[in-house]
Amino acid sequence: MEARTVWVTGAGSGMGRAAALAAARDGRPVALSGRRAQRLEEVAAEIRADGGTALAVPLDVTDRTAVGPAAARIEEELGGIEALVLSAGLNTPHRYWRDQDLEEFAAITETNLLGPVAVIDAVLPGMRDRGAGTIVLISSYAAWRFSPDAGTAYSASKAALGPLAAMLNTQENRHGIRACHLCPGDVDSDFLEQRPRVPGAADRAVMLAAEDVGRAVSFVLTSPPHVVIDELVISPAKPQA
Questions:
Q1: Which residues of the chain fall below pLDDT 50?
Q2: What is the pLDDT, as a whole number, of residue 1?
Q3: How many domains does the chain have?
């Protein structure tokens, strides 16, 4: 089977869902991972209803013992994994040092940094063998410009994805593998529920839509193989005062 499969983590909602739908519209088989099996099946049903191919593979990316078997199942059922879109993320309403809990800090780091590393480790050998692969790390505007309200653990873990992408490009371009550090600004999605103050309708109206991020992911995935988009920052237009 042709190795064009896209594996999306955090695919049950928000930016991950939008990226999965965009990849399916581009004609690619899509593997959907996340912790909520029912949400994954709903996204898979959307893709199939549109004539696409989708496989729901429930996975918590912090469970490193489960990542390898998930990758193996995807390759067996859909073919070689040509692209990764790493969208699983976590934050907390407790974003100040005075409120910090180290267990919560560790959980955020496990999800936002070590989770992507584990998934990348699982697919890199196959990408090297085939001489092709694209990895999109959905990060945050807070990783590109310091954003004090984003929180300590979230900012630190997301900022680490930039050097991770740069290291992949430095070491793996020779094998036909490229990585993009994608940094969206405020996005109207379920992730806003993790803020200390959940934005209302007026605030959400001037944010990016998840579909805007999906289009950006599609742009990266469909760029010619010799093009490396090292970092891509997208943000909502600033309304005039």
A1: 1
A2: 39
A3: 1
Residue 178 sits in a domain of what CATH number?
3.40.50.720
Active centre residues (catalytic): 154
Q: Give the Cα separation of 58 and 51 in Å (integer).
A: 22
Query: Domain containing 112: what range?
Result: 5-234
In a domain, 156, yes or no: yes
Rounded Cα distance between 200 and 204, Å, is 6
| The predicted structure's pLDDT at residue 97 | 86
pTM of the model: 0.92
| Residue 241 in domain | no
